[in-house]
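Limitations
The structure tokens in this dataset are predictions for the assembled complex, not deposited experimental models. Users should treat interface geometry with appropriate caution, especially where small molecules or nucleic acid strands are included. An illustrative entry is reproduced here so readers can see what is and is not provided.
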Amino acid sequence: MRVALMITCINDALYPSTGKAVVRLLRRLGVEVDFPQAQTCCGQPMVNTGYLDEAVPVVRTFVDAFAGYDAVVTPSGSCAGSARHQHSIVARRSGDEALERAVAEVAPTVYELSEFLVDVLGVTDVGAYYPHRVTYHPTCHSLRMLGVGDRPRRLLEAVRGIRLVDLPGADQCCGFGGTFAVKNADTSIAMGADKARHIRETGAEIVVAGDNSCLTHIGGLLSRQRSGIRTVHLAEILASTEQSAVEEVLTR
Amino acid sequence: MSGTFVGMPAFPEAAREALADSQLRHNLAHATGTIRAKRAKVVAEVEDWEELRLVGAAVKERALLDLETQLVRLEETLTANGATVHWARDATEANAIVASIAKAHEAQEVVKVKSMVTQEIGLNEALAEEGIAAWETDLAELIVQLGDDLPSHILVPAIHRNRAEIREIFRSKMGAAGRPAPADLTDEPAVLAAAAREHLREKFLRAKVGVSGANFAIAETGTLVVVESEGNGRMCLTLPEVLVSVVGIEKVVSRWEDLGPMLRLLPRSSTGERMNPYTSTWSGVTPGDGPQEVHVVLLDNGRTRALADEVGRQALRCIRCSACLNVCPVYERTGGHAYGSVYPGPIGAILNPLLKGVGHDDQIDSLPYASSLCGACFEVCPVRIDIPSVLVDQRAQVVDAHRGGVPKPEAAAMKGAAYVLGRSRRLSALERFTGLGMRFARRFGPAAWIGARDLPDAPAESFRAWWLRTNGGRNDGGRKGDGTDD
Amino acid sequence: MTDARTEILARVREALAGSTVELPETSAPRDLAPVATPEVVELFAERVADYRAVVERCGTEELEERIAAALPAGEVVVPPGLSIGVAGAIVDNGALTAAELDQIAAVVTEARVGIAETGTIVLDHTPDQGRRAISLVPDTHICIIREDQLVADVPDAIALLDPARPQTWISGPSATSDIELDRVEGVHGPRTLHVLITPPRKVTS
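Predicted assembly:
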């Protein structure tokens, strides 16, 4: 099986540790991924702001980079959703039939990380160890656009040492929403403030999610509030082992 | 980035004001939370709910895709049943028709069933100009009308008011409109409802003309359907001599049997009940029973514009249940007034631009952006309107309407991003400056972000650079034994 | 200038021109089940009571007594075709005005169909139920429904009902949730709904 890693633009630039965690995790599970150097972004920032023409070259780059793989795995529900549900809209708009065909081929091969682990590799216990009190925020696009269901939760429940605590109002949006966070900043912050309050109420040290974009917003609020609660991507928890936990303590 | 983005001004500013009103936030959170729980409970009782949603969508879609035939059929059957059918291209024409019917009967007042469409066309104001008083008889509409307020929810227009505020409105305003509120009025909901009963009863008993909308209009049988709770609808539909119903052309369904799935879907989605207390159906005139003069005004007012939009067309399936409002995290915090329309919430954010068109009004253009695209609305919609997809499509229409001329900062930024993201080497060149960029953003970034949210620290190198340097972690100095340095 | 009808229909035609119109199938998702099993009767009674209506099951011979017991003080109106006698009742002749009906305390009617799943009674205003106004204005509605008139769910009822008749679907007493979404019984329609479920009508062959 030829598997490509789609890192996403935000992980590439701001959260390389998430990408490294995916590589480490999949390697541990016996899967070597390619990293097609031609990749850039899924184009969602443009599509969701209404700039469909501007998204066309980005989608073209995307399908060129990921054509021919059996599976494309990405640590983002939102970007996977964009590739699976929005690329066809952009392609249709471009009037380029070759692009439409390419999108139709590539889009179904894109998997969000928890889908890839549970559905493609068929594992829920990935042999991780993470001795922390953690609460899980299901991001909207993973939950409702992709329908990942309880896959991330099942993966987390199998992690040794973890204390998973329920997040009240978990399925409520955190208020990030891409450019919504800036265009409608007041509403976005009001939504985020409620999410942050729910997270603090759980007493968790860590809030985990499958999208670093949402975690940037949530973490930004938690940090400004000096809550001491850290945001961590799902991949990083699943990649953790007893050895990495010891090393983490040693390097503190 | 600055405040001149396309779609920026209207909703965000209205929302800011609403967000500052802590009483409003409290009233809304309480009310939407209550109704969400009620809906979830009764929906869970229906085993085939998801299948039922598909049927509901198909019933409406079938009629919309065949609308000309259905409307002509509806006109025929209504006429055969003794009703008079009128057609109105817009609000002005519809209002004039209703006013002329009232005048023909020398009516100085009409009693009204709660109806979204008559609010959409501003019927009350138009009738007032003709010297005709239009009395709202639904409790929430009465609260809004007496309080000289605006509706903020499709189902519960006074959702933004709590019991204490309602008591105050009744005490100070009922007297001027008719029978005053009793002196010992408390803020108990049952007591307030009883005061409304007394106040409105004299109006029902003397009214000559009733005005309604319709939840469904059945083409095959010439039947109109009104779904309600309080019995004010029955009063208006039964007691007056003359009944005028203003019906948007999208309300048509083909067959009598289509009512089955719709009446299973609507109350559970709307009030969170298995069935609403009262549903009235009537097919024209019934001799010796109810109004003996029945009019139906078929209204366009932008609906054909929406119908022409292949993506947005599905919004015309809407049965005005308001489930999307109740689950919307944006609506829950801003309330309905921020949307600047009688149709607020997620459905309003697509319906208003579809009915009125984009590109000529900043307020309308801001509505498709009033969403985080979380998708909760689509999940609950009983007729499966994919609101997030329509929102994104409407955003594209807003952007397209503003293309040409000097690009606004956002458009320039998107063009720049398209250039950078079109080629990975451009992106990788730019990523060398991520650290600098984040340091800059922390000091000079958009206040909209950094006002309340910290930014993350930039990493020493991008993932892409790390992969190249270490061959995907394989040559990374053996740290951690598994090939990554994290 | 073209008239509104012509123009609206033309706009509709134009709006749909070029769309591939494949009309979706809209069949009901389940088979109709119009037979009143004991479970259906039980569910109906339970669901009507959920709306805080009064529900009683009684034999035909007890009916007069139960109605008398349920009637409030004041006058009572009955439709012209009511199959059971109500002592002292005013029989509606179609001439009572709304204001006159407002002075009457109660109404006794029969019904066309009852829906178990939703606890709904449907009147179609034939002479055993009377015109719409008499079951609306008085504050107490006593409604008699036979077990053989009960169906499982809404589509079953739709299949039995005649759309040419005016219909009133009643699910509990009048209610509102307009104040803080708190359900309150009793606004404009009858504030008391009293439902009497009687055995099936005997078929003489």
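Some entries come with short summary sentences. For this one: The longest strand of chain B covers residues 242-248.
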